[in-house]
Amino acid sequence: MKPRPNHKPKVIIIGCGFGGLEAVKALSRAAVDITLIDRTNHHLFQPLLYQVATAGLSAPAISAPIRHILRREIKRGNLTVLQAEVTAIDAADKSVVLDDGERLDYDHLIVAAGATHSYFGHDEWATHAPGLKTLADAFDIRARVIGAFEHAERCANPDERAAWMSFVVVGAGPTGVEMAGTLAEIAQHTLAQQFRRIDSKLARVVLLEGSDRVLGTFVPALSQRAREQLKRLKVDVRTGCKVTTIDETGVTYDGHEGDVQFSNHLPTRTVVWAAGVAGSPLGRSLAATAHAELDRAGRVVVQPDLSLLDHPEVYVIGDLAAARSYGPDLPKADPKPVPGVSPAAKQMGRLAAANILRRLKHEPTEAFRYRDYGSLATIGRRAAVVDLAVPVFGALRFSGFFAWLFWLFAHIWFLIGFRNRLVVLIDWAWAYMTFERHARVVAEAPHRPGPPLTPPLQDAPDTQPLA
Amino acid sequence: MKPRPNHKPKVIIIGCGFGGLEAVKALSRAAVDITLIDRTNHHLFQPLLYQVATAGLSAPAISAPIRHILRREIKRGNLTVLQAEVTAIDAADKSVVLDDGERLDYDHLIVAAGATHSYFGHDEWATHAPGLKTLADAFDIRARVIGAFEHAERCANPDERAAWMSFVVVGAGPTGVEMAGTLAEIAQHTLAQQFRRIDSKLARVVLLEGSDRVLGTFVPALSQRAREQLKRLKVDVRTGCKVTTIDETGVTYDGHEGDVQFSNHLPTRTVVWAAGVAGSPLGRSLAATAHAELDRAGRVVVQPDLSLLDHPEVYVIGDLAAARSYGPDLPKADPKPVPGVSPAAKQMGRLAAANILRRLKHEPTEAFRYRDYGSLATIGRRAAVVDLAVPVFGALRFSGFFAWLFWLFAHIWFLIGFRNRLVVLIDWAWAYMTFERHARVVAEAPHRPGPPLTPPLQDAPDTQPLA
Fold first, then answer.
1. C-alpha distances out from residue B326 to B296, B334, B373, B393, Å
2. Where is the composition biased (Low complexity) (chains A, B) (predicted)?
3. How many Å apart are CA B409 and CA B414, to the nearest integer?
4. What residues of chain A lie within 8 A of the CB of B197, using their CB?
5. Residue B7 has pLDDT above 70, yes or no
6. Given A77, A97, B160, B451, which residue has the most CB atoms within 10 angstroms?
7. A423 phi-psi bin (left φ>0, alpha ψ -120 to 50, beta other)
8. Pick from A300, A325, A360: which residue ends a domain?
9. For B408-427, what is each residue's pLDDT tens digit?
10. Mutate which of B83, B189, B421, B448 to disrupt the A interface (most A C-beta within 10 Å)?
11. B254 and B172 fall within a common domain
């Protein structure tokens, strides 16, 4: 059947992260009818989300309304944006189901639904150890961190006070290292001398890591530098530690000193989870209706062109895709999987869009080739590690203050919108000069996990302001 | 008994709004031991709160951590800041009780606990018509407004869609006028052409007012100007309307056309309450233990020096005080009560602090004299009314673009902190040029009618999730 002149192929894109947004932009001038579905109203610059969690930036500085970013594409007339949750994908029926029961048909589908936290089968830990994926997560962690110091100031029991002043970050990838470094900075500088009954400098920040080094995806020399920089910030880094329990009393883990195994309990009220990542539940929907294969982390194993084996009209990109990079000499793939980073998601978004257009023209699709420009991670004020892949030259690795400056400008450069860049630059310059974190503002009532506070003793001498 | 040399008089200040903050500053160099208690961790610049609710500003732009504002005073050693909710004042025992049961003694007390919404005996309306007093309120309203347009875009039923695209503001004081004007601006400009299925310009903004004119505290000529400016922004202003019901279907009110009475129902899913104000529940605590007299709005009737008749060591200031202004010729007071505005609260905070110091020196206290510098109200982009009391010259009244500029700079001038002023100026310049409202970002799931989003009781602490 020849296509009717008025019937444009329908493309549905699920998720407006880095991958989904690039796919929309790449398709927006083509003769297709695009529907973009996201469960929030904004695109989020996730690499700086830890700054919202640690009160260095406000939410609007690192996020922008989807309708604003794509206002020109919407005006052009072939893009519909819906704020909705996709509850299921029916690949056999070529449709997706929304939270209100609405069913939308597609001719081509791009699933860019991203990843969520994984607690390795211990979902009960989530209450005590929030992860960091959404703005709501960041506000939750901000409220817990700021509330912990406030509780400590009001607390008469020394054990309880010590628990409020202990912070544990689980997982020493880039997010965990950034969180731990910034938490230490807050305790050492931002809050210094702002309390009467406690000394914020005595707060303890512990970074737990299961493997034997921090920033495991970097070369060992940079891991070592990062560890030294964390130590300088007074972060207590403990590698080779496997968390066994997280509850309202704190974190228990198994570790070893040489050959001696031991189990340790860290009493704390504030835990940040930066360890496990799992593909969006929509992966299971694809496994059920499109026979997609999932890897151990719940990510969808894709073909070289990012589509599914039995459903070449369905593409999976970004953090939800278990993809490999292919050189021009298909079928030999890189042995390493493509990492879950924003440049990879953007590149996949562009390729999935291009492959849809190729199929519409009955041309063969192309395989994904990941261009790795390097990795950056920051540790706190003035410290970072940089590992760049420079064409011809090879690897360029450095750490310290210049790495931090490089990290700063690279991140601000990729922020969406001129206003955001300007405001973030001002915020950083301000924070750099004053040590203040301007977004230290919590709208909710203070967070209170676990057991209720015991009423402070009336006459405890160390809690009386001044006698 | 002579005071012991090491025993400084204890002053407790409840609330860190405009009044409480001024009182702390005025006392911080005196030989007193101050404890400041607030249930949030921040001071809020309430006159710009409607900008957070309408996504023009981020929360940190109009708020600052109390510990940061008062860091020098804390360092000086006679100020303790506690984030806590005061649940009761025991004036007979000269102590206050905190949420965890802790009891703090005082020699002098300043109650600056402010006001909350009043639904005139209809607390059940709170679920459907949130008021605007806290950052949590502002995030709630922001989520509802942005979510309403998103729901309308997804909605197939024309009646339901029309209800999502109708916005009702109850109360045409400064907050109601600002909210209605800005909502209209969002529909007419910010969101224009950013949807496919709906036309945001067809959204309807209704401003309901019980009396016969908007901005009732201004002179009639300025009320008339404000009404014209609202009309130009396509706000449907209806005066002489008494709300009888607010529920999930909309707002019902009684009105009249000439002598003909009628009842009307406005179908809407989004109502903002800007009508009634009631004193903090701590007023009732003072009535019970200090024989304080409350007025109809639950405010505490104070003596000319802002203290209580039976308890000269207890001062009530700001929105919680029913105060009058006295000239030098006591006891003749101004016939009009002091309005609930920030300059009045600041002046009361300074006087209460000074009167405490006078009493410590066994000097007579002074009566409150309100210095009224005038009133400002803005209506939307480029429109405002200004009524200044200029010494010698008399009243200076103007409206329109220059009034808006005056309003803008006056508000930015009084914002706390250089960074905030700079960021707010940039945000406004940006919004002015682009019509974009950069904080149009909602962290939670979209608002859905049915289960309440806000705690239905006015007295409940802010516990809803942060938007």
1. 22, 6, 16, 22
2. 456-467
3. 9
4. 80
5. yes
6. A97
7. alpha
8. A360
9. 888 888 887 767 788 888 88
10. B83
11. yes
* AA letter at B17: G
Tell me, yes or no, whether B130 and B265 share the same domain: yes
Q: What angle do CA A460, A128, A133 make, to 5 degrees?
A: 130
Q: Which two tokens stand for residue A172?
A: 């020493």
Count of structural domains, chain B = 2
Residue B153 shares a structural domain with residue B242: yes
| Mean pLDDT, rounded, for B29-56 | 94
B427 vs A409, B146, B438, CA distance in Å? 21, 19, 8
**Is residue B350 in some structural domain?**
yes
The chain B residue lying nearest A440, using CA atoms, is B65
Does B417 lie in the same domain as B268? yes
Domain range for B327: 10-39+84-114+280-360
CB contact under 8 A, B135 and A423: no
> Could you report how far apart the first and last alpha carbons of chain B are, in Å?
55
Specify whether A138 is located in the same domain as A182: yes
What digits encode the pLDDT tens for the residues A321-372? 999 998 766 667 677 789 999 999 999 999 999 999 999 999 999 999 999 8
Q: Is position B131 within any domain?
A: yes
Residue B359 neighbours by CB under 8 Å, 6+ apart: B108, B312, B313, B365
- Does A196 lie in the same domain as A104? no
Q: Cα separation of B365 and B354, whole Å?
A: 8
* Segment A426-434 mean pLDDT: 79
Kind of pairing, strands A86-90 and A95-98? antiparallel
**Residue B82 in 3-state DSSP?**
strand
Pairing assessment for the beta strands B166-170 and B270-273 based on DSSP bridges: parallel
Q: Mark whether A140 and A259 lie in a shared domain.
A: yes
Judge whether residue A388 has pLDDT over 60.
yes
Kindly give, in sequence order, each residue whose CB lies less than 8 Å from that of residue A361, ignoring residues fewer than 6 positions away. Answer: none
Domain at A403, CATH number: 3.50.50.100
Assigned domain for A419 exists: yes
Kindly indicate the confidence band of residue A276, based on its pLDDT and cuts at 50, 70 and 90.
Answer: confident
pLDDT value at A457 more than 80: no
From first CA to last CA, the distance across chain A in angstroms is 91
CATH value at residue A294: 3.50.50.60
B344 domain residue, yes or no: yes
**CB atoms A40 and B443 under 8 Å:** yes
Instruction: List, for residues B87-137, the tens digit of each pLDDT value.
Output: 999 999 999 999 999 999 999 999 999 999 899 999 999 999 999 999 999
Mutation for testing the B interface, residue in A10, A102, A438, A464 having most B CBs under 10 Å: A438
State phi, psi for B18 to the nearest 5 degrees. Answer: -65, -40
Other Cβ atoms closer than 10 A to A264: 13
> pLDDT (tens digit, 9 = 90+) per residue, A147-205?
999 999 999 899 999 999 999 999 999 999 999 999 999 999 999 999 999 999 999 99
CB B117 within 8 A of CB B136: no
Distance from CA of A12 to the nearest CA of B (A): 15
pTM summary value: 0.89
User: Residues 25 to 44 of B: which have CB under 8 A from any A CB?
Assistant: 33, 35, 39-42
Q: What is the mean pLDDT of residues A232-236?
A: 95
Q: Give the C-alpha separation, A357 to A107, whole Å.
A: 12
How big is the A-B interface in CB pairs under 8 Å?
190
User: What's the token pair of residue B453?
Assistant: 């989003």
Three-state secondary structure call for residue B167: strand
**Cβ neighbours of A456 (radius 10 Å):** 19
Phi-psi region of B250 (alpha: psi -120 to 50; beta: other; left: phi over 0): left
